[in-house]
Backbone:
């Protein structure tokens, strides 16, 4: 019986952890026209700020996600890619979406920092920012 409880706890822990995706894999899927939904959970100022955003991304800040789930209605069974600056807020958002019944939730590992460092295209006011400038500013959530 003890093993059964341990196994159940492990399953619950794994169920709560997000699936990760690398920037290059997300870019490949977008380039191949796969039906993926990209949700950027940063605030609007960051979305249009120095790191820019992925062209197809919807901006729904993590603090508003639960109250704006209706905007994602019908996407519960398809792949949803969550993006923030690093990946902390995206991981929190992943728990919210999974609790709401979304089945294919992924978090962009290292977020827009990795996207920009890899040299992938970004839209927004400061999308031309280099990885060196990002590092000089330091990392924030």
Residues:
């Amino acid at each position: 019986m003890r093993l059964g409880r341990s196994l159940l706890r492990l399953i619950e822990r794994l169920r709560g952890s997000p699936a990760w995706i690398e920037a290059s894999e997300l870019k490949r899927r977008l380039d191949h026209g796969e039906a993926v939904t990209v949700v950027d959970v940063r605030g609007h100022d960051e979305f249009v700020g120095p790191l820019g955003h992925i062209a197809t991304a919807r901006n729904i800040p993590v603090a508003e996600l639960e109250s704006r789930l209706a905007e994602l209605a019908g996407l519960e069974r398809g792949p949803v890619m969550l993006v923030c600056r690093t990946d902390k807020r995206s991981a929190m958002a992943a728990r919210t979406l999974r609790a709401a019944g979304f089945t294919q939730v992924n978090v962009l590992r290292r977020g827009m920092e990795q996207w920009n460092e890899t040299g992938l295209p970004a839209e927004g006011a400061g999308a031309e920012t280099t990885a060196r400038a990002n590092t000089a500013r330091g990392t924030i959530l």
About this structure: Residues 127-141 have pLDDT under 50 and may be disordered. The CA atoms of residues 77 and 103 lie 6 Å apart. Residues 2-16 form the longest helix (15 residues). The chain has six helices and five strands.
